[in-house]
């Protein structure tokens, strides 16, 4: 006999497990805020003018400019316009008249020269240097008034400035010149942080003219500024370039040399 196989249908087996154990809701990892990038431009000494007796020299600042106030910064204006903040050391007097102080060099340009700065996207200047008093207190008063009339922020010797960029960055600047009181400098830098500065710049007029190496005094003071909370030390006065040093999460530009020197 032939045997016919028999097929048996079976139901699938399903195992059901019940649990009374509590389950935690899924957690979401905190998201980091997006990075923000800002560009700050710090430029060297700018003497917008010259010795009065050289004002009309054929190869002098006034004649070379020929009424074009964009001429002095023409080759760098693209950097100034495409950053968040540009600052220069204004090492001259802006006055239409006045008597020179008894010193070897006295630099002056007319008050209209503020247009050189405002027309080239310079946001602020430091006046903490050894030439803003070249024409006495009257010349200094003329300079500060001309800057105010041009709505151009400035920082004076042993003073501070808070500036908020169009991009929302709050910048604090401390400015000093030669006879530094280290304790006061540190206090001013700390105060800028307390006032909300997100970036602090110490603009220091120091060192020796024509010397390519910073002095020990510069190094000591630069370290002190960074240790007090400054992010950047912006050095000027030697009129030549000096080294750049990274120190304790900050950077020290010992001297940025000359930029536009009439």
In short:
With 262 residues, the chain is an alpha/beta fold. 21% of the residues lie in helices and 23% in strands.
Describe the structure.
The strands form three sheets. The chain has a six-stranded mixed beta sheet, covered by helices on one side. It has a five-stranded parallel beta sheet with strand order 6-5-2-1-13. Strands 3-4 form a two-stranded parallel ribbon. The chain starts with 39 loop residues before the first strand and ends with a strand. It is an alpha/beta fold and 262 residues long. It contains six helices and 13 strands.
Structural descriptors:
262 residues, alpha/beta, six-stranded mixed sheet, five-stranded parallel sheet, globular
């Amino acid at each position: 006999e032939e045997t016919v196989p028999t097929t048996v249908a079976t139901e699938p087996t399903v195992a059901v497990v019940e649990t009374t154990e509590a389950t935690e809701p899924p957690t979401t990892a905190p998201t980091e805020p997006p990075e923000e990038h800002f560009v700050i431009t710090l430029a060297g000494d700018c003497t917008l003018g010259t010795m009065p007796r050289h004002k009309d020299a054929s190869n002098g600042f006034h004649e070379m400019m020929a009424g074009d106030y964009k001429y002095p910064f023409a080759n760098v204006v693209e950097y100034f316009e495409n950053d968040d903040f540009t600052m220069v050391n204004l090492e001259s007097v802006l006055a239409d008249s006045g008597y020179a102080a008894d010193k070897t060099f006295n630099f002056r340009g007319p008050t209209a020269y503020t247009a050189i700065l405002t027309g080239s996207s310079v946001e602020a200047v430091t006046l903490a240097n050894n030439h803003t008093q070249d024409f006495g207190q009257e010349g200094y008063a003329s300079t500060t008034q001309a800057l105010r009339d041009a709505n151009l922020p400035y920082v004076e010797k042993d003073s501070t400035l808070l500036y908020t960029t169009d991009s929302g960055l709050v910048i604090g600047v401390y400015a000093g010149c030669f006879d530094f009181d280290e304790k006061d400098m540190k206090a001013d830098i700390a105060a800028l942080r307390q006032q909300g500065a997100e970036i602090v710049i110490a603009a220091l007029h120091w060192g020796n003219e024509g010397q390519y190496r910073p002095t020990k005094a510069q190094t000591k003071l630069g370290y002190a500024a960074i240790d007090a909370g400054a992010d950047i030390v912006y050095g000027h006065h030697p009129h030549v370039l000096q080294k750049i040093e990274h120190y304790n999460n900050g950077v020290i530009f010992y001297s940025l040399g000359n930029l536009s020197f009439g």
